[in-house]
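Hi U.,

Before I forget, here's the chain from the pilot set. I'm dumping it here mostly so it's searchable later in email.
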Amino acid sequence: MIILILGILIILLRIIEFNLFIKKISKKCHWYDCKHVNANPDLFIAYLDDDYHLKCEWSAYKFMFLNGPTPISIFFSLKILTFDNIYKKEILERVSYYENI
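Structure:
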């Protein structure tokens, strides 16, 4: 009985951690896209589309969510949910480009 309760508790904690991590990714993607559009004003028209993240190769949503690891693989990975553990170094460098400017 105690093992069952511990198992359920671990799964619930992983769900909460996963939800917070997905929100953190979404916030970072939105921040990157805004900074990228500010640096390249000609992309503003594409940014105004509702589905720009599906069409535009420069969008962080495209290369972090759609072309990145699937949410199921992130959830079931036995790693701590940090950007360094989940994403490749090239993607992290690309997203952090505007943090240094």
